[in-house]
Design a protein that fits this description.
The chain has 115 residues and is mostly helical. 57% of the residues lie in helices and 0% in strands. The protein is built from five helices and no strands.
Length: 115
């Protein structure tokens, strides 16, 4: 072993984590020859951090497994295709929409699902 092996090496730069949706959007942009959406998001993140706002760090996604009927999967596929929104994001939107409704509306929706 030589003395050069004992030298302190420069640490690799830390790469920022990006969401799955941003990764997919950036891959699509790359495939169509468009500028990277991730670099624009990083600029926004740096600006937000300098202002004291870090909205991206509050988004923590966790893998979940759900059982859906074939009909529900078909409807979800159709919604995703029509709206051009990822299925996981659509599910998050629907969850928040259901949560924001009053108790009576929630019970009506739950009652319809039991048929």
């Amino acid at each position: 072993m030589s003395l050069t092996d004992l030298k302190r090496r420069k640490k690799k730069s830390h790469q920022d984590c990006i969401s799955v949706d941003d990764f997919i959007e950036d891959a699509n942009s790359y495939a169509f020859g468009k500028p990277s959406a991730v670099s624009r998001n990083r600029k926004k993140l740096v600006q937000a951090q300098s202002n004291g706002l870090d909205k991206h760090s509050t988004k923590i996604f966790k893998h979940a497994t759900f059982s859906l009927t074939e009909d529900a999967i078909t409807v979800l596929d159709d919604l995703a295709t029509q709206s051009k929104i990822a299925k996981s994001r659509l599910i998050r939107i629907l969850i928040h929409d259901f949560f924001d409704r009053c108790d009576v509306e929630q019970e009506q929706i739950i009652g319809k699902g039991e048929d």
